[in-house]
Write a structure and sequence with these properties.
Strand order of the largest sheet: 1-4-3-2
Largest sheet: 4 strands, antiparallel
Number of strands: 4
Structural class: alpha+beta
Number of domains: 1
Order of helices and strands: EHHEEEHH
Length: 154
């Protein structure tokens, strides 16, 4: 028996990183959400709906962040047209005070933090690809984005 190869009509994976000073996490989240929106919309002409949802997910997960180390993950599935599934995966990490161990950091300097957002927007084109996404969504596979990228290629 020959195993079917996963096929995808959309396969977008990006990582966005922004450094910010203390007290500006929400401004940074808005900037990254807009950047993710633009990247997604530019990737495929008819992806405005996915881009809007992605922006909303980043804003939602980010709204739970404060000026402390945090990690947030969110998965979202939606159906567009008839029977076309779209899967959106977002992983966010807030790294606090990344300048603390730098030799040249000074006491009077603002603390620099880093926000990392990884996201995937995928549209499976066959059953095996859809099963991969469902597996990632409903099972404990660690990083869902790494699971999709590491185990299955386009």
């Amino acid at each position: 028996m020959i195993q079917e190869t996963p096929k995808w009509s959309m396969w977008l994976h990006e990582s966005l990183t922004e450094e910010y000073i203390e007290g500006e996490i929400y401004i940074t989240i808005i900037k990254i959400a807009e950047d993710a929106y633009n990247v997604t919309k530019e990737y495929k002409e008819d992806s405005a709906n996915q881009a809007n949802i992605l922006r909303d997910i980043i804003m939602t997960v980010g709204s739970r962040f404060h000026e402390l180390n945090n990690i947030g993950t969110k998965c979202y599935a939606l159906e567009i047209d008839d029977e076309t599934n779209v899967y959106i995966f977002v992983e966010m990490e807030n790294q606090v005070n990344i300048t603390a161990n730098r030799w040249l950091s000074c006491i009077e300097c603002d603390q620099i933090h880093r926000l990392i957002v990884k996201f995937s927007v995928v549209i499976p084109n066959n059953d095996i690809a859809n099963k991969i996404c469902l597996n990632a969504m409903h099972n404990d596979v660690g990083s869902k984005i790494k699971y999709i990228l590491g185990n299955y290629n386009i």
